[in-house]
Give the backbone structure.
Amino acid sequence: MSPSFPTPPEPYFVSAGEHPLWEQALAVVNRDLAATLPEQRPLRLIAWPAEPGEPEQVYVALANGDAHGNALWPARSAGEALSAVAEAAQETVMECLWQVWPVCTLHGLGMHVAEEAGRPVWRCAGGARPGAPAHVRAAIGELDTLHRPHRPNRKRRKKNDEDGAPRRAG
């Protein structure tokens, strides 16, 4: 007779109200996901039950339950929770979807979580040229408020003169 091993616990989607600080942070991060990857459904929190006496492990997952990276650590503030959830979301999106996220629209580089004036932000390392330094692109949750950068080498559309003849915009 072969030995019987206990069945490992199954992960489950976190219910509303179980982890309010992380849930609020995830709602903010999901605004950035919707603004930058509109084809993706919102991220969710997923938990693995722990051994008796141990805390459960909570992760940020894609809508289908796929997750990657480390469990969220206990946060003492909303800012800490937002930073932790943003980093976990970035890890899950990048590893499960195999794409860089979020990307700076000015430099085409992946951004990282940082803190600026006590607030979690998405920070870009800057361009390859000396004139393109590192910069804060947006506060986490505010990527949808950004406008596309001006592209000076873009083809210009023809406009009509007063007499109706087409001309190049100058």
